[in-house]
Amino acid sequence: MVDSIAHIASALESAKAITLEAAAIATSKLGESSYTHYSNRINGKQLRTLLNSRNPRDVKDAMKRIITLMSSGDSSIDTSTYFADVVKNITSDDIKIKRLIGVYLLRFAEKEPNLTLLCVNSLQKTSYDTIPETRAFAIRALSDIKIPSLYPMVLHTLKRVVTDPSPLVRSEVSFGIMKLFRSENDEFEEDLVTLIKDLLADTDPLVVSAAIATFNECYSQNLEWLHGHYRRYCKMLKALDPWIQATLINILVQYCKNYLPRPTLNSGSSTIVLPEREDDIPFDAYTISMHPDMSLFLTNVKGLIHHSNPEVIIACYNAFFQLSTSKEIGKSKFIEALVRITQTTTSDSLRAKILQLFLYSSSLYPALFQRHLKSFFLSPVNETVEIQCLKLNIISRLINQDNIKCIIKELKYYIMSFLPYEVITEAAIALSRCGQVSIEWEVTILNWFISLMEDNLLPFEVLESIVNIIRELVQLDPKKHLDVIIKLSNILQAHTPLADNARAGIIWLFGEVTSIEFKICPDLLRKLLANFVFEGPETRLQILLFAAKLLSCDIDRFTENNSGGEEYDLIHSRIAQMFNYVLYLSKADDDYDIRDRARCFGSIFESQKFEIATLLLQAPKPIPSLFIKSGKDNIEQIDVSIDKQIRNGLSIIPWNEDLRLEEDVDVRAEIPLKDYSKFKKSFSSDSYIGKAPIRSSSSEASESNGSEYNEFGDIKGITSPNGTNASVFTSQQGHKYQLQSLDEFFSDIPAKPKHKKKIIIEEEEEYDDEDSSEDETSSEEASDSEEETSTSNGEEEEEEEEEEGESGSNASEESKKVTGDIVTEDNPFI
Amino acid sequence: MLISLYITNIRNELIFQYLPMGSSPTYASIWKKMQLSCPELLLANEMKSRSLGGGSAIMVCKYRSVVNNMNYYCLTSDDSVEVDCFLEYLDELILEYFDKDEVSVKKLVNNFDRLSLLLHSVVNGGEINVGFLYNNRIQNVVPPVHDLRKILNETAHTIMNQSSGAMRSAGSGVAFNASSSSRGEDMVVPWRRNGIKDAKEELYVDLKEEVYVTYRKSDRHHGRDGIRTSNPSMELVSGHIKGTIDVRCYLNGNPTVSLMFDTMGNDLGIPSFHACVEQEDQVQEQKQEQEPESFQGKRLLRFLPPDGKFRLAQYVIDLDGQGGMSRRMDRDGLIQVSFEDGLGLNKDEFEVRLHVRESIAVVDPVEDLVVTLQFSNGNDSNVKMLRATHGTFVGQDEDRQCSWRFDSDEISAGTLPVLRGCIDDSKHVQQKKRSCLTSVAVRYGYPGELASGCRVTRLDVDVASPRVRGKVFKGVRCVTRVPALTVRA
């Protein structure tokens, strides 16, 4: 730091010749903020001047200003008016300016098609650049321009660069295909298909990754294209880009479903094919056997268990969900990985989606999730209502005899805490579902709810939903819950300030109970009548309904007991009198609905159509939606709360029933690959162990079919099947060369034994013999000429070197400078 | 398909917008539509994607960055897991790119051009630009800004060149091109730049853990699983520790780093690793038929690190599966909490006690300690403090919460703060309806030690070529945060 400042001080002293403006720009480079300050002062007029300046720095400043204006939403200067000034700078040598223009073109090219054509030529030229990144940029910028007249030219360029030695450029071709495909031009279809097929057969993982993205986007129906690549893709799954692995897994699942036979389950002597639903498996213990290609896929999927991208883990889980049994899902431990993601992710949206996945799966395989129960307990730190409700919903599906105590304790805590009302309601629903485990628990839970109401400890909003839950619980089997019903009638009469619809709910429940426990009802109605006018509208309506139900029930009881044809006394019956009183009050009600209903019921009973009354008022009610149904209904029940994408992922893809297996033909035999790495003119290697095979995962095949590509050059691929010899280069003559970088070469000198030099000289002789060979690379030719001189006194040198090692190594260093990176395996010194 | 992307502050005011298509709407127009069709999405904590309304299939996805205090909005043609993951990753990528722990609005404003280019390279034709999402790959295309020292050096150099008349007319692009010359295709691994020569030779490992644990006071002397617990009044409801291993790497060449991680008996389950961590393929192949192993014991992580900041691993320790209560209690941080309710003559007093454990590794005082007291319903009750040995007491809010706050240098190992208070609830004589203390939650952080006890026992840089590498400066830092340790009544 001190040195740097000293440098500046001395430099500033000697910099008297610099103009004031240049100095201002120089100092502005010292800090981002001061540069921004300088940049913000550039006005519209200056901007045009800077864009037309010959100094690249001015142009860069102007482009930065334009991009800043676009990005900040600042409308003080209309950036689209500078189109011509911006576009002509595409000829600049500075790649950053080009890239900034690329960003500008994305936004405005469509609006100015004629002016955009001006930059096409320059971009075409750039696509011949020596730096792959620059070439890739040119391809991208060209294919991004959405002008129909330009498409044929773009296609031509893509065809030209699809054999580019750089994977960066080839992967850009893949995106170019996607953009042309979107133009929906039928003329190109054939060419695009040829191109994408070539890219799918590429050996480089980067290119394959991009090709799969395009395949998924444009040609996902053509799964048969993957026949020859299936095994290779399975093996190279890990080497592909993390952002394409999920897509590829989903594609391969589709492929397995279409082209591979359904797995079979074996138990003893019986064998069945894997059924669509786990419940349909007739035996408890079984082994699953699947096609070797499917096992290959699932084995490689298992290897992604530690992946950091949640999307990949979800895709892996789906693969097991689609192709295997719950036992295998459990073994694969992807559920553990997903649970970890729900706890670590910072995206609530993602967390909600994984919880939806759990909700769906837990209703199918609750046993798989029961051990993670506590992970679904609500977190004390901020969670959205949606996530809390999803968690509670999942908990309610994991209840069994072993964990019910723990769950009930927890749910009771949530109901009593200061959570949002929706969450408390969901917790109460979950608690009511605990009652499904056994009647004892149901009674305990109901009593707890009643005690809550009696003590009036809950806010109105929650109380209302709890009344609904109690009502639904009791409705299932009212006979068993008579004591609860009596307690409810006490609550109704105890003048506790219950919400209107909570009271209405309880009264409705009594209406339902009339046919079961008639005795308590008339008295309750009598007590309710006294306060009829002070009740809320919903309660008034329910009292009317209650009175009608009671009367209808009383009439039915009377007809049952008196089969002699005696008529029910509608005038003197106490119940009928009470009904008439309610009718009288209701006919003068404020509420339309109550008046309407009152007239309706009144006319039914007046005209003595008691059968209609029975049908209307005592119809059996459906089982409440609160409770978890079994099997398929269960899935339908939760289906509504699940996002479309998660649902699509989980809906079982049907197996291809028409699949015909031809035993002699192996459709998935690997097809010839496109290996362009042989075009490379420079070689470098690295010592990173284990990573070298990434590029070479398929080179076995390419070697076997290699002759096809020999026309492109003399040099075979520098890669090798097992990756151990990744840095070995084989020339056409069959000589092997160890490839090293200059740094490695120099650093390795002392460590190498010297006695091997002899062998080299023999090789050089061989070289001399074959010197007539035409196809030597220039570097090799250079090395040859150097070697010729060295071999002329080779014998002497050898003796000398054995005597005085140091001078020998110096000589070898010199020869290395000429030979570049290529060093013979046997003697790395030359 | 990604249509546009907007970064706003938490008040939803635009900071940055990336509009990669002629038809991409500006934030100003989207803002109006969002207010009309999905106003709830604009709320601070809401992240659920929503349709933009008006019959269009366009979705607005949102990601709230807690670290940077910013919102990311993204218009897409479908609401997919991919978009959620992408937005979360983008936030991390921006931090990695600028090599910061948090990015300020000012930093973004000063770097609009870089940010645009960054997005230009990660989004291609509306799709995620597969293969170009590694920070190092992006740095190849969009070189990052250098730190002040480098800028000073460079500026000095430039001025000297200028003053000596050596400035070339077209020379300004040279620096950019030079850095571009480390060509992407020569990258040994997709996540590391090649040809790094001027790095500082430093390697830092940051271990961070967050503890989330809930206890219930229990009168029983036996835990739920029948094991006699060391603290008979506590029962674990649920708890987990979230851990991350972040690495900052500034090394030359392509070094392989070995990190020996000792889990100290914890079961880390199935952690996630950065793509650079070697996965011992051959070993795994032999065990294909077996279940993946839990991460336990002393494990060696070997990796060829990306240049700069990155997340090496992320794990969760489930405290429920970690053996007996005493073992769990050792893993929930430095502070133990206990409280009593119904004390005093009128049974309306309560007492909260904290115990700060002593630890050799923790030298600095506990940071940002806040104790939150939650009281049950009781409309007219009023909570008063009687006495407190440390800290300040802040009265009740509408959620019936009180807080007891401490200054950062107030609490160190071995202190025993005690708070005594009373609930003034004269109207409810009946015991059942009385307001009472239902839970006490503690929030704090401390450097020096991880709650779980996990640690790095060895950190080596494999020296492939000793001449290239000088002495490497290495460092390991541990930080624990306890966002929520709750004890329920």
UniProtKB/TrEMBL annotation, chain A:
<dbReference type="Pfam" id="PF01602">
    <property type="entry name" value="Adaptin_N"/>
</dbReference>
<dbReference type="InterPro" id="IPR016024">
    <property type="entry name" value="ARM-type_fold"/>
</dbReference>
<feature type="compositionally biased region" description="Low complexity">
    <location>
        <begin position="696"/>
        <end position="710"/>
    </location>
</feature>
<dbReference type="GO" id="GO:0012505">
    <property type="term" value="C:endomembrane system"/>
</dbReference>
<dbReference type="InterPro" id="IPR026739">
    <property type="entry name" value="AP_beta"/>
</dbReference>
<feature type="region of interest" description="Disordered">
    <location>
        <begin position="692"/>
        <end position="718"/>
    </location>
</feature>
<feature type="compositionally biased region" description="Acidic residues">
    <location>
        <begin position="762"/>
        <end position="806"/>
    </location>
</feature>
<dbReference type="InterPro" id="IPR011989">
    <property type="entry name" value="ARM-like"/>
</dbReference>
<protein>
    <recommendedName>
        <fullName>Clathrin/coatomer adaptor adaptin-like N-terminal domain-containing protein</fullName>
    </recommendedName>
</protein>
<comment type="similarity">
    <text>Belongs to the adaptor complexes large subunit family.</text>
</comment>
<feature type="domain" description="Clathrin/coatomer adaptor adaptin-like N-terminal">
    <location>
        <begin position="41"/>
        <end position="608"/>
    </location>
</feature>
<dbReference type="GO" id="GO:0030123">
    <property type="term" value="C:AP-3 adaptor complex"/>
</dbReference>
<keyword id="KW-0653">Protein transport</keyword>
<dbReference type="GO" id="GO:0006896">
    <property type="term" value="P:Golgi to vacuole transport"/>
</dbReference>
<feature type="region of interest" description="Disordered">
    <location>
        <begin position="753"/>
        <end position="830"/>
    </location>
</feature>
<dbReference type="GO" id="GO:0006623">
    <property type="term" value="P:protein targeting to vacuole"/>
</dbReference>
<dbReference type="InterPro" id="IPR002553">
    <property type="entry name" value="Clathrin/coatomer_adapt-like_N"/>
</dbReference>
<keyword id="KW-0813">Transport</keyword>
<keyword id="KW-0472">Membrane</keyword>
TrEMBL record, chain B:
<dbReference type="GO" id="GO:0030123">
    <property type="term" value="C:AP-3 adaptor complex"/>
</dbReference>
<feature type="domain" description="MHD">
    <location>
        <begin position="200"/>
        <end position="488"/>
    </location>
</feature>
<dbReference type="GO" id="GO:0006623">
    <property type="term" value="P:protein targeting to vacuole"/>
</dbReference>
<dbReference type="InterPro" id="IPR050431">
    <property type="entry name" value="Adaptor_comp_med_subunit"/>
</dbReference>
<dbReference type="Pfam" id="PF00928">
    <property type="entry name" value="Adap_comp_sub"/>
</dbReference>
<dbReference type="InterPro" id="IPR036168">
    <property type="entry name" value="AP2_Mu_C_sf"/>
</dbReference>
<dbReference type="InterPro" id="IPR028565">
    <property type="entry name" value="MHD"/>
</dbReference>
<protein>
    <recommendedName>
        <fullName>MHD domain-containing protein</fullName>
    </recommendedName>
</protein>
<dbReference type="GO" id="GO:0030659">
    <property type="term" value="C:cytoplasmic vesicle membrane"/>
</dbReference>
<dbReference type="GO" id="GO:0006896">
    <property type="term" value="P:Golgi to vacuole transport"/>
</dbReference>
<keyword id="KW-0968">Cytoplasmic vesicle</keyword>
